[in-house]
């Protein structure tokens, strides 16, 4: 019977060895891990579209310099995936506010992408002091009728700021005869663009040699327009329910001072935080309003913020 025991022992050793070999083959070795990385994550060169336009004005993609510059912005913005997804989410929420105001002023719909690159569709603050979705400077805002002080800053009012952006863009278009140059002037200023056009003796944005920021500006707009218009083409996957929704509100007119916005909020069944989320242009916990100006405060419709 000893030989039977020896055979069983050998079979047992063989079985254990087989388990060890199989386990080793499936173990996350560097080789296996690298193979999995290559198979699961790929970075591709992107195909630049054969035709691109901004506000009906064609982009000269047959020019190798222009081709490389749009290719750069498509790559940078496609492979910055987290930021890209946030832009899709915010666009669903805020484009319905911006689009009808652009249409009312006769400003091309493409300019909503200018707000995307200016602020990422947030109430951003620049080092130079620009504020809001449209990054309006204090002097410009006041010139176009916005109230800007420590108590109220209407640059943070998306509807009012969009109105100002439209007026500015229309004046630039009238000056340059081109929506593309008007977009560039939104970044560099009308004077800055005029000076460079004259100095370089050209009349087209795509013929200008500009600094890094303004030189990339229109190309970034074009890239975001292309990506946000064709999510599947650039590898962005989401469902409609993944996107942010605009919270329905109604407006309450106020033509007196408000001494305490916490108490004011509670009258409408919300708290101070919710009031400020929907009215970021109210900069303090009270409203001075010595002039008895008529303000309109957005209040979320009942039940939106129920716990």
UniProtKB/TrEMBL annotation:
Residues 1-23 form the signal peptide. SUPFAM superfamilies: Lysozyme-like. Residues 105-204 form the Transglycosylase SLT domain. Gene3D superfamilies: 1.10.530.10. CDD domains: MltD-like. Keywords: Signal. Belongs to the transglycosylase Slt family. This is Lytic transglycosylase domain-containing protein.
């Amino acid at each position: 019977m000893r030989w039977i025991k020896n055979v069983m022992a050998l079979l047992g050793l063989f079985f254990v060895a087989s388990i060890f070999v199989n386990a080793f083959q499936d173990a996350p070795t560097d080789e296996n891990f690298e193979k999995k990385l290559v198979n699961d994550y790929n970075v591709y060169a992107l195909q630049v579209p054969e035709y691109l336009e901004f506000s009906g004005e064609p982009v000269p993609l047959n020019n190798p310099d222009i081709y490389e510059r749009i290719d750069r912005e498509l790559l940078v913005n496609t492979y910055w995936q987290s930021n890209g997804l946030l832009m899709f989410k915010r666009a669903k929420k805020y484009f319905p506010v911006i689009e009808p105001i652009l249409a009312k002023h006769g400003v091309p719909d493409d300019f909503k992408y200018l707000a995307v690159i200016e602020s990422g569709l947030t109430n951003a603050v620049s080092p130079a002091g620009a504020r809001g979705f449209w990054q309006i400077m204090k002097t410009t805002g006041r010139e176009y009728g916005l109230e800007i002080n420590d108590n109220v800053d209407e640059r943070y009012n998306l509807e009012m700021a969009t109105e100002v952006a439209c007026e500015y863009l229309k004046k630039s278009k009238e000056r340059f005869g081109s929506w593309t140059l008007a977009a560039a002037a939104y970044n560099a200023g009308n004077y800055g663009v005029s000076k460079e056009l004259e100095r370089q003796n050209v009349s087209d944005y795509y013929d200008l040699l500009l600094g890094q920021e303004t030189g990339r500006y229109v190309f970034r707009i074009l890239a975001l327009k292309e990506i946000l218009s064709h999510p599947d083409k650039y590898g962005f996957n989401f469902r409609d329910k993944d996107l942010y929704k605009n919270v329905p509100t109604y407006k309450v007119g106020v033509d007196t001072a408000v001494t305490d916005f916490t108490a004011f909020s509670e009258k409408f069944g919300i708290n101070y935080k919710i009031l400020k989320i929907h009215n970021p242009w109210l900069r303090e916990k009270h409203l001075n309003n010595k002039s008895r100006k008529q303000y309109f405060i957005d209040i979320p419709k009942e039940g939106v913020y129920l716990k």
